[in-house]
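Forum: Protein Structure Q&A
Topic: Joint prediction for protein chains with partners

I've read a bunch of threads here and the consensus seems to be that you should model interacting components together rather than docking separate models afterwards. I'd like to see that in practice. Below is the full input, 1168 residues plus whatever partners are listed. Could one of the regulars post the assembled result?
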Amino acid sequence: MSDIKAVTQTHIITADCPSRPGTVDVVTRFLFKQGFYINEIHSFVDTDENHFFIRVEFRADTETEFNRESFCEQFEQRASEFEMQWQLASSPYKSKVVIMVSKHDHCLNDLLYRYRTGDLNIEIPAIISNHPDLEELAKWHGIPYYHLPITKETKPEQEAKVYQIIQDCGADLVILARYMQVLSSEMSKKLSGKAINIHHSLLPGFKGARPYFQAYDRGIKLVGATAHYVSDDLDEGPIISQCVETVDHSYYPQDLAAKGRDIECLTLSRAVRCHIEHRIFLHGNKTVVFAK
Amino acid sequence: MSDIKAVTQTHIITADCPSRPGTVDVVTRFLFKQGFYINEIHSFVDTDENHFFIRVEFRADTETEFNRESFCEQFEQRASEFEMQWQLASSPYKSKVVIMVSKHDHCLNDLLYRYRTGDLNIEIPAIISNHPDLEELAKWHGIPYYHLPITKETKPEQEAKVYQIIQDCGADLVILARYMQVLSSEMSKKLSGKAINIHHSLLPGFKGARPYFQAYDRGIKLVGATAHYVSDDLDEGPIISQCVETVDHSYYPQDLAAKGRDIECLTLSRAVRCHIEHRIFLHGNKTVVFAK
Amino acid sequence: MSDIKAVTQTHIITADCPSRPGTVDVVTRFLFKQGFYINEIHSFVDTDENHFFIRVEFRADTETEFNRESFCEQFEQRASEFEMQWQLASSPYKSKVVIMVSKHDHCLNDLLYRYRTGDLNIEIPAIISNHPDLEELAKWHGIPYYHLPITKETKPEQEAKVYQIIQDCGADLVILARYMQVLSSEMSKKLSGKAINIHHSLLPGFKGARPYFQAYDRGIKLVGATAHYVSDDLDEGPIISQCVETVDHSYYPQDLAAKGRDIECLTLSRAVRCHIEHRIFLHGNKTVVFAK
Amino acid sequence: MSDIKAVTQTHIITADCPSRPGTVDVVTRFLFKQGFYINEIHSFVDTDENHFFIRVEFRADTETEFNRESFCEQFEQRASEFEMQWQLASSPYKSKVVIMVSKHDHCLNDLLYRYRTGDLNIEIPAIISNHPDLEELAKWHGIPYYHLPITKETKPEQEAKVYQIIQDCGADLVILARYMQVLSSEMSKKLSGKAINIHHSLLPGFKGARPYFQAYDRGIKLVGATAHYVSDDLDEGPIISQCVETVDHSYYPQDLAAKGRDIECLTLSRAVRCHIEHRIFLHGNKTVVFAK
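Posted by a regular:
Agreed with the consensus. Here's the joint model:
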């Protein structure tokens, strides 16, 4: 396919660099000179870290055609002066997403529905699981299902296979949709900034296993979920989104889990949406999220 | 004052005991036989602990007069068969509340407003602080203000004075409205089930000091507060109520604190309301709250 | 099947009657005398209407067997003295639910997921639609799909067919899961208290057609949904549950609709859960909902 | 006072104009050329109306001094080419706010607390009421209180006096904090975009008088409040913020009102904060709000 796209195409540029005067102008001047409309712009300066973040949605004027190569080459000239890291995405922005699951299917079901209806603008080239249980669900959606069992001994080998699939798919994002396995340190690093996990508690409360049981024992009055980027440090990855619902004393662990399932689905899909719409910056152990 | 009250008076009986058949009937049969209307009834059985809780609001029929002494004597006969712990409160249910503060005045201001307008049905015989700052606010509301400074050395002595005031007032409840001091183990025990603290995080996340700074460092997307009964184990007391608001990367600790102030006020006043309306049962390290 | 059930069975009795002393005792005394445990009890007196409502979950003692016929006969004797309307449900409480849809599938998909996983304790003997679009979804779940097109002229005939299916199924509940057709006055009356509709606005705001467009034009900052019992008066039926999410100026009608879809699913499933758990009383044009 | 301010000063420029390429660049290029840092930037294009909105927070570089007159003169040259309407505000951004009240004091009390503690960065040169009741509260905060009774006959005269006070104060904003009087069409027009009202329902539901009673009659499950700019068309003004809380059947009108008071305070203070931080654009009958 040629790099020359139709004129109604829209684009998203995301960039960050050390903060100094002119960081906005680098982007906005360039886009103006090239004859683009800006649809939406968000910027943020972290004054503690003295770091600048910007996200711009823009579209070509009717008389302009988009030459990606030329755009990138020219923009890099300006950007490099500011030590700017940047990415350019162009519509239709269809991300390739690999989903990893275990036996719980609520998050998978929710993601597949959003995929099927176009609510999430994604392709799903692969679903990977350490159990065979959810194959039928994958099949009904016409998605290849890889059953890769894991044991303590076979973990390196299994992860190698998983990573191979991710690579072969050209995946932009890996979603751990209740995968229930801790990734190895090596795997976590390889997937840094490209893998989102859903944890079924309001981190940092109730880290580790069986958070709904922990929450029940503590007698909490809010149950929640946390979507975060996978990091080497378990349950300490950069938080993307968190949601809650109220509960009371009458919620046993299975009731918390039932209410939590809805929250997990919403929290995870929001995080995924932000990621595929290029709204998230990974920033040390935190995120900057220009959410809609 | 006589024990005979006007016929439009309402009453609240709260009781708990080991679960077995007939625990509801003990209360409802008695009230029926005595000719009372039941306005509202809540019960709960903790099936893990096999324990029963009940709260009943009732009112005398128009031809009945209320003799508290006789009521209690007769009810105890039935209740004792079931090893039932119970309390009876009669309208106008005006609780005596001692408020303890430090320098932050948002929770105090909120409680005083609710007191002044009757939104919270309380008397405030004393405000106690280790600092003189909030005296003027107390004075404007016509409430005695006790300035009792505290140091590591004078802590036992100061706490003794505090406890004396609480005793002298006949306080039903002590509210630590951002008191910012850890009560001694001895004091915590004395006030067990009678002292509510507001912690400015979603416990068990961010225990201890400066939770808004901890929350900022962790990059959380929800800021919250927790009202709990004071216990010997700091920040581990039984949770009564929890509330949250959404935040994002642009919230520095002072912004979290600003948003948090509103949440602290709401969370604390809800817990206080539940307590003075006899809606809370202390149950090991948890609470049963029959919230409206 | 015999009326004698296993001893671990639980039951729910719901009742309402004019308020007077002894209305609770009617239920609780009877249950005690029959040797039942009460798991949970909720009551409410509408003091404006002077009407009493009660819901009790109870279970047989280990040595007792449950004879439904005998229970009902004996209870009716007491209940009739109080002009009490009452119902008895016994576990496993599996309700028969007919779902009606048009072309939008988000609510249907959500209900089917909850059905499939047992999150909603229901059977779905039929899905009825005026369009053929969602047949495949029904089929995958093994549920009969009735395609009954409707025009202005064929409406009486179509509704007769629909009603026949509902009757034949022995349905306890009909869910209009974005059916997009206004039921006739006659049909509404036949289904009174047995049909739940989801309206995609916070009623009474934005009644009628295209509520997300109306909401957009008005510039609202919260988008919501309302689940209500179907009544003869369009969009005026008794409200069961309402939920919202925050939005801002950047939400065009299609964005409101997208966010609204999640809210519609949650709002509808909550209403359905309350109904099948016998937590709702229809009370004139309102509901009393003893929600968990 | 000189137009030359200290170098640590920050500024906010807000602007809107018909959408076309270069609208962002107009602002960002100018600020860059003048040597300013941009702290935060938000823009939005209403593609239905083809209109552009932008808000930029910026600060002078350490070696630059701020000459307001010169800034405005030069910026206007560029802005006028784009038919841009714009405003410039400079720290400390202290807005002058006149508050109008009747007898309900919860919103006033909340605003005064936020004023007193600096949470809202405002001066309050006057509180105006048609009743004398809240004078003491005003006095304690050292704020002049104008008691201007109103009758059908004296309304034009009273409004003239009110407007005179607003003019004399140089007020930037008028807050109707439960003023309970409908402003005349003339007065509404004079205060267009400068007066915020709090309505105690989720508009457009329950317009007009006694919304909590209307809400009770309708049996709603969410109670809410709406802050909006005053317009000639009662309860139809542009919405700024809306908040809700869940309620159930047990809430009588007075209970809805009690819960509503907290929501009204939060909703109003959020709208006021957005206004004084120059985050709101009035846009026909809607608002664009770049909320934090």
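The mean pLDDT of chain C is 94.
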